[in-house]
Amino acid sequence: MATKKAKAAGKFGARYGKKLRAIYNKVFETSKKQHNCPVCAREESVKRTSFGIWECKNCKTKFASGAFEFRKADFKK
Ligand SMILES: [Zn+2]
User: Fold this and answer.
1) Which of 32, 24, 31 is nearest to 2 (CA)?
2) Ligand 1 centroid to 55 CA: how many Å?
3) For the segment 38-62, what is each residue's pLDDT rounded down to a tens digit?
């Protein structure tokens, strides 16, 4: 059972070390988080669809950004 403290890395159990599990949690959370769209300015509409590909569900714009994190700085006008 995944505990609260272990978060997403709880599936690893006691394996792979504390630091690595902490990194995994951070990456998992940023990749699952929804982000604000830099095109239509709608909040929390950009989701990760694939490796480095992010899509806005509102205006259907696709973005190429970080593999596991959405970098808004890439799309500043
Ligand atoms: Zn949009």
Assistant:
1) 24
2) 8
3) 889 889 999 999 999 999 999 999 9
